[in-house]
Amino acid sequence: MAGTVDARLKELGIDIPTPPTPAANYVPFVKSGNLVFVSGQIPMVAGKIEGIGTVGEDYSVDEAKDIARICAINLIAQAKVAAGGDLDRVQRVVKLGGFVNCVDHFIEQPEVINGASDLMVAVFGDKGRHARFAVGSNSLPRGVAVEVEGVFEIA
Question: CA 65 to CA 78: how far, in whole Å?
Answer without folding.
Answer: 20
